[in-house]
Design brief:
about 325 residues; alpha+beta; Ribonuclease iii, N-terminal Endonuclease Domain, Chain A; Double Stranded RNA Binding Domain; 3-stranded antiparallel sheet; 8 strands; dsRBD_dom
Length: about 325
């Protein structure tokens, strides 16, 4: 255990006066012959939260409490702290008698190597084992106790450990702010509902009373970010134009059920019904392809558009209708 204590001191760049407190911080509850880190983890959870609250309060004097809360949550979530344990190798120095723990930690550590920066906030492909965050919190508490509960000094020690810190400039607030801005422009009401299930925070987002996304996390604010991100992803696959026609676009930028959507559009704009015509047939009978055109008459002008070649007439008509809708949007007819 002495070598483990020395290694962690090197990582922290801090020498403990009472090394027993660090030994306790590095002892899992599966080691029943010694005191575990659970009491220290309890203290560390509060210490790291208050330390970050102080930091963001002083760093951003003009930012409201909602944004400050998001900044703190992004930096002290289980996902973020677990990655601190992996990045600095702190998990290697924990003594335990739980074989299953090694496999979970190893799987997570491998996943962290190939993930992007947002995974620390939203979570990656592998859920972070809570034990990793607990280790970081217990070590922080050990420093706090050893330096006679000096929070300012603790922050000097742990700030480097917790880098990269999510700042106002790097916090991905867009999912929340963009969702509200987008729906506000469209005259739609956004409601977020929060609740807890065991240790998990759940946030559901409703737009005009309809459930469109749900996010989860151990932190309430991160659950909200996750839900907003999912909501935006769904909305970004849809287009809502000025007359209220909602349509989804596939990976080829083709509008799903375009013929029906164009019909709805003509009805709402009180334009005559769109007319379709087969412009071209190519290929042998068993592999024939069709190209269709569509014509609509607005209050000002007649518009004509041809689609791509398709193996079925219905698909060719949808292609023409899709191009017509895109053209109407780009030409500001909608």
């Amino acid at each position: 255990m002495e070598s483990c204590v020395s290694s962690v001191e090197s990582i922290l760049k801090y020498r403990f006066g009472n090394k027993k407190v660090l030994e306790e911080a590095l002892t899992h509850s599966s080691c029943t012959e010694s005191a575990s880190y659970q009491r220290l983890e309890f203290v560390g959870d509060a210490v790291v939260g208050l330390a970050f609250a102080n930091f963001v309060y002083l760093a951003y004097p003009s930012v409201d409490q909602g944004i400050l809360s998001l900044l703190r949550a992004a930096n002290i979530s289980t996902e973020k702290l677990a990655r601190v344990a992996v990045r600095h190798g702190l998990y290697r120095y924990v003594r335990h008698n739980a074989l299953a723990l090694d496999a979970k930690v190893r799987e997570f550590a491998l996943a962290v190597e190939s993930e992007d920066e947002l995974a620390a906030i939203y979570g990656g492909a592998v859920k972070a084992p809570k034990v990793l965050a607990d280790i970081v919190e217990s070590i922080i508490a050990a420093v706090y106790v050893d330096c006679d509960f000096d929070l300012k000094y603790v922050w000097k020690i742990i700030r480097g450990l917790l880098e990269p810190i999510v700042t106002l400039e790097t916090l991905p607030l867009q999912p929340v702010t963009m969702l509200y801005e987008l729906c506000q422009k469209q005259g739609k009401q956004v409601d977020m509902k929060h609740w807890r299930k065991v240790d998990t925070n759940i946030c559901s987002i409703y737009v005009d009373g309809k459930l469109i996304a749900t996010g989860t996390s151990d932190q309430k604010d991160i659950a909200k970010l996750n839900a907003a991100k999912e909501a935006l992803e769904k909305i970004n696959k849809s287009v809502i134009n000025n007359v209220g026609i909602v349509y989804e676009v596939n990976e080829k930028n083709e509008i799903e059920s375009a013929k029906q959507k164009l019909h709805e559009l003509c009805c709402k704009k009180k334009w005559p019904k769109a007319t379709y015509r087969i412009e071209k047939e190519v290929g042998l009978a068993h592999e024939k392809k069709f190209m269709c055109s569509v014509e609509i008459e607005t209050a000002e002008v007649k518009l004509f558009m041809s689609g791509d070649e398709k193996s079925r007439v219905k698909e060719a008509e949808n292609s023409a209708a899709s191009m017509m809708i895109h053209s109407l949007v780009e030409s500001n007819y909608l």
